[in-house]
């Protein structure tokens, strides 16, 4: 059973630290259900377009962080075949001369919204970005307190950080190229935290004590997932949970999900926190910047644009 956090009455430090140790927990979502339904309707319309129309929405130079990514591109570190899913990413723009954008241009692509194909999609997805980010900031304020940090400790490193919203369409498994393919191979997220509001069908699973546990966010809740950044910052007290997405036996329909990844500003140095009362465990991680960790992970999962040059069919 996942622990539940109500941000209005978050419970004591031990409850919150327990949720962080699990790495996956439920939080009452403050994003309106109607906005989520509206976004899913627009995204269904987008993914139902013809492959050529969708491919024209690819954004080169964004390392797949904006616009459309076709099926069988994203590949988890542990995957022997690519995931059976297609993606649409968006974020919010930074001003052209913002020093973060000048220094890390590939992390700040201008968002691309296919309003000419699906009229109205842009404003719904922009609104969803804002509401979900507000929710995530409330979550990290509560977590900071449980870790003995100032309530603004995490929101400060998230200021102007690249927030990546991802819609994933998992096509029906009957159409998969082989029975070795699954929707999303097990992986850890590499941001600070990720918010996963309810999806349109079952499929999300988290690894707990060596067993896969099915996770479905009930209406009005989001799953929150600890990413590698929070794992490193807490010297492993918070656990970047291993998760995957698989169709259940007999599940014939596809699945659409929306998640939001919160990354610290790339110039943040990920110095481990001194967590009061935490056991004195040996320091586990070297100190990297948020961008160094991001680049290293993207390289390992073969998602840097430079690694795709000359790869046919991609
Ligand atoms: O689709 C989902 O529910 C989870 C997706 C996910 O884990 C990811 O994109 O990193
Ligand atoms: Fe994930």
UniProtKB/TrEMBL annotation:
Pathway field: Antibiotic biosynthesis
Keywords tagged on the record: Antibiotic biosynthesis, Iron, Metal-binding, Oxidoreductase
Short name of one Pfam family: 2OG-FeII_Oxy
Domain Fe2OG dioxygenase positions: 161-264
Stated family: Belongs to the iron/ascorbate-dependent oxidoreductase family.
Name recorded for this polypeptide: Fe2OG dioxygenase domain-containing protein
